[in-house]
């Protein structure tokens, strides 16, 4: 029997990943002044040990005021390279690849870690807990929500240029640390995403107004990073394909904008678009079902492919079982969307359509079940190699 696409390798520029599984970036709020810690080594190393081909390290700030919380990972100074290198070396020792998401939190910076927010019933990290509520920046002076969030300062052109340089410098440090893949965080209402949306970006200069102006910062970051990293290194971009504000009647960032953007990415050297959604607006109305986000990826992929552009697509969101993961990337198959809405997976093979995505990114399910990839391999009857130290734990054929 043929190996499902899910377990076939994927080569992007000079990097080959063993299968189509990636750890979706997840902030762990466990860094020490931006430096990764033992927690990260164990947490991230566990995925590489258990068959995930590409582990994308959490949102990593390009500037101290671009952190979501005081405990975020960062790459704004050279001392942050060594602890990252330690994690990357371990991932490599397992024959797997390491990515890192580089980010600036914009108006969603200076918050406390989620678990602390729950206990204290407040989001804002004030100065006494290491926050910088008066030093947050955004395209316009509009907070994420009316209460409990920092009031950002509208960025000057000089500050924008500094952030672009910050992204390039962070990417260079990631290269020194041995990282295989860079992902730019352009999603979830963080700085780049704030510039994309006409709701959060009310600027009247060359960074606001038209689609071209609102995407300017993104393309400057893309171009600066592409120029700073080796030709052989893949570049990913995560965006929110929609900010889920269509209901409001306001002009917002929509799927159509994302498709328009996607078609422009290959010529700027972006290799993969990681399709997420939401996070830019407290009033967002999500239409959640198991394929709510995967289907956005499929729509972007179809539109890009129709124009003959070469852009890989990553799908993320609620991917939590073997069959779902398999069908998303399976070549020559298309999902029955109606059935998918009800949570069942039906494949319309006669459709002859291509896949929904090229890479499956998993976040929460890998926290629940770190051995998801190995278990999926077993369920799909695919033989994958286990770490030599773990071989005795491999499921015997008779294991039920
Ligand atoms: C996240 N998510 C996230 N996304 C991102 O782009 N950068 C990040 O640093 C984080 N941090 C983060 C932390 C934690 C604990 C969770 C659970 C999530 C979002 C994540 O990558 C993913 O897109 C969503 O969780 C949806 O995928 P799942 O969880 O349904 O597989």
UniProtKB/TrEMBL annotation:
- Coiled-coil regions listed: none
Q: Which InterPro entries match?
A: Aldolase_TIM, OxRdtase_FMN_N, YqjM-like
Q: Which molecular function term from Gene Ontology is one that the record holds?
A: NADPH dehydrogenase activity
Limits of the NADH:flavin oxidoreductase/NADH oxidase N-terminal domain: 6-333
What SUPFAM superfamilies is this protein classified in?
Answer: FMN-linked oxidoreductases
Query: What domain of life does the UniProt record list for this protein's source?
Result: Eukaryota
Protein's name in the database? NADH:flavin oxidoreductase/NADH oxidase N-terminal domain-containing protein
């Amino acid at each position: 029997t043929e190996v499902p696409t899910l377990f076939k390798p994927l080569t992007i520029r000079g990097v080959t990943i063993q299968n189509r599984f990636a750890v979706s970036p997840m902030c762990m709020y466990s860094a020490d002044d931006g430096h990764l810690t033992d927690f990260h080594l164990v947490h991230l190393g566990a995925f590489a040990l258990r068959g995930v081909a590409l582990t994308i390290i959490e949102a990593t700030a390009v500037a101290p005021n671009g952190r979501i919380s005081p405990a975020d990972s960062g790459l704004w100074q050279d001392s942050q390279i060594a602890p990252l290198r330690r994690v990357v070396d371990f991932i490599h020792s397992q024959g797997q690849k390491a990515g890192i998401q580089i980010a600036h939190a914009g108006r969603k910076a200076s918050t406390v870690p989620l678990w602390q927010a729950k206990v204290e019933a407040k989001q804002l990290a004030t100065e006494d807990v290491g926050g910088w509520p008066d030093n947050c920046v955004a395209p316009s002076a509009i907070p994420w929500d009316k209460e409990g969030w920092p009031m950002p300062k509208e960025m000057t052109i000089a500050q924008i240029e500094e952030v672009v340089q910050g992204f390039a410098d962070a990417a260079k440090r990631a290269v020194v640390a041995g990282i295989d893949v860079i992902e730019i965080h352009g999603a979830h209402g963080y700085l780049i995403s704030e510039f994309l949306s006409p709701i959060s970006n009310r600027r009247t200069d060359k960074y606001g107004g038209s689609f071209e102006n609102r995407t300017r910062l993104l393309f400057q970051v893309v171009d600066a990073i592409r120029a700073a990293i080796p030709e052989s290194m893949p570049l990913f971009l995560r965006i929110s394909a929609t900010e889920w504000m269509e209901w409001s009647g306001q002009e917002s960032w929509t799927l159509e904008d994302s498709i328009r953007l996607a078609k422009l990415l290959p010529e700027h050297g972006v290799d993969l678009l990681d399709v997420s959604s939401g996070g830019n607006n407290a009033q967002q109305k999500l239409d959640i079902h198991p394929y709510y986000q995967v289907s956005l990826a499929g729509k972007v992929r179809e539109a890009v492919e129709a124009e003959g552009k070469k852009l890989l697509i990553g799908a993320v969101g609620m991917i939590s079982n073997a069959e779902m993961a398999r069908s998303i990337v399976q070549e020559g198959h298309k999902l029955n969307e109606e059935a998918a809405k009800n949570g069942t997976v039906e494949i319309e093979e006669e459709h002859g359509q291509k896949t929904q995505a090229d890479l499956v990114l998993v976040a929460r399910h890998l926290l629940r079940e770190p051995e998801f990839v190995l278990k999926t391999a077993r369920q799909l009857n695919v033989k994958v190699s286990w770490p030599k130290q773990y071989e005795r734990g491999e499921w015997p054929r008779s294991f039920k």
